[in-house]
Amino acid sequence: MSSSIFKNILRFVLLILLQVAIFNNINFLGYINPYPYILFILLFPVGDNRALLIFTSFLLGLTLDMFSNSGGMHAAASVTIAYLRPWILQSIFGIAYEYNAIKVAKADFGERLLYISILVFTHHLILFFAESFNFSDIIYILKKTLFSGIFSVLLCMLFITLFSLKRK
User: Fold this and answer.
1) CATH of 3-167, one of 1.10.1760, 1.10.3470, 3.30.460, 1.10.287
2) Taken in order 93, 10, 21, 164, is the CA torsion positive or negative?
């Protein structure tokens, strides 16, 4: 088994365990629920199979749905950002994406922050809209997306920074 496959399996399992054991129990002021499990999708190797990314994103979301009893909301949000990921990478990283030369942990801070922010806020908007499934709750959905998104982006940036410092 190659090192990349082992790292991705380990990342998948650890992020699910952290999400279920710690982060699902955080509910600050009714609006802040961090979801750092999407780091698996964000850090999935760029050159790897896109169908594999979408399938594993579905498994990631479905696994979290089974633990959270959330009826497929995480799976829907995860598959959506996995599907949109190549276009986001293309628009942010440009020519580096064409040559599969992107390492998110080694990217410039601004590019990394923009990439993570777009995908996290997209994920959260889909997730919280699916949770409410009512346009009359749009203010609640937007508040929850904003506050949870900010906290999730900060956690993702922190995790990426900590684990990239370990390798140096």
Assistant:
1) 1.10.1760
2) negative
Tell me if 134 sits within 8 A of 110, measured CB to CB.
no
- Condensed to tens digits (0 to 9), the pLDDT of residues 98-145 reads 656 677 777 888 989 999 999 999 999 999 999 888 888 899 999 999
List the beta bridge partners of residue 28: 32
d(CA 142, CA 126): 11
Burial class (CB within 10 angstroms; exposed 0-12, middle 13-18, buried 19+) of 124: buried
**CB neighbours of 131 closer than 8 A, spacing ≥ 6?**
70, 73
